[in-house]
Design a protein that fits this description.
Structural class: alpha/beta
CATH topology: Rossmann fold
Number of strands: 9
CATH class: Alpha Beta
Order of helices and strands: HHEHEHHEHEEEEEHHEH
Strand content: 15-25%
Distance between the termini: 34 Å
Shape: globular
Radius of gyration: 18 Å
Number of helices: 9
Strand order of the largest sheet: 3-2-1-6-9
CATH architecture: 3-Layer(aba) Sandwich
Helix content: 25-40%
């Protein structure tokens, strides 16, 4: 399915990717221990099946997880994938450990400016960026889609074993309006380097409740609605957001 989807729009991808020096596959590993919340290795294989026969360039699988990025790479089979002889010239990059960044100004809860460090790799004009995102409900933006994956995957936190600890991802959670505005500013910064996005929709979860243990797989189509012919009213948007929030199973993380 992934291969067929990319191959169907190859005529749009080819003119851009041919001007680049390498490919970034930006996976979505908000949890490093629960596969339901993370990009599956089979999705990455589908991307490689499309890329490798026709584009002879290095491929880097990258993430800046909220936890230990390399733990997620091991748990979800990316390390095994990169070591496979069929995966030619594929590397794994923990953006937090690499520690290269560019700074942009965002706003805090009181609307004061605060600096945030974004992963420099995601701003590299030589990279063709492929977003491979898991569809998930979210307590602030209703759903995690491709823009959310790229925007909140860009800010960094401390590398493993680094002290003192710091986390620029937390600077986005400064109130609902501030969060959306900060995401807008970050998207504007990242957008010139975006290539293509894949949205894998099969499960539900919430980073807000950390309800990994309580999650059950639910077909995503149960949460997809046909868009109305006119823009939704404020009350409709609120009802949809509450419907998504109410569908999240509650529980404690272990």
């Amino acid at each position: 399915m992934v291969y067929d989807g990319l191959n169907a729009i190859d005529h749009q991808i080819r003119p851009v990717i041919q001007r680049k020096k390498y490919v970034i596959i930006k996976v979505n590993n908000v949890s490093t221990t629960n596969q339901l919340a993370a990009t599956h290795a089979d999705t990455v294989w589908g991307i490689l099946d499309y890329l490798q026969p026709q584009y002879n360039m290095p491929v880097s699988i990258m993430e800046s997880s909220a936890g230990d990025t390399m733990e997620g790479f091991r748990n979800f089979g990316y390390v095994k994938l990169a070591a496979d002889s069929a995966a030619k010239n594929v590397s794994l990059v923990d953006l937090n450990a690499e520690g290269k960044y560019q700074v942009i100004p965002l706003i805090d809860y009181d609307l004061h400016l605060q600096p945030v460090r974004l992963a420099a790799r995601l701003l590299d004009p030589d990279a063709y960026v492929i977003c491979a995102c898991m569809l998930k409900t979210h307590n602030t933006v209703v759903a995690t889609l491709s823009v959310k994956n790229m925007v909140l995957g860009a800010p960094l936190h401390q590398a493993p074993k680094e002290t003192p600890r710091w986390n620029d991802k937390r600077k986005y959670h400064t109130g609902i309006r501030q969060t959306h505005y900060n995401m807008l500013l970050t998207a504007q910064k990242l957008r010139p380097n975006w290539g293509v996005a894949l949205l894998i929709g099969a499960w539900r979860c919430s980073t807000a409740t950390r309800a990994w243990k309580a999650m059950d797989p639910v077909p995503a189509r149960r949460y997809l609605r046909a868009l109305p012919s006119r823009p939704p009213t404020t009350s409709q948007r609120t009802a949809w957001a509450w419907s998504a929030w109410a569908s999240i199973p509650r529980g404690r993380a272990t």
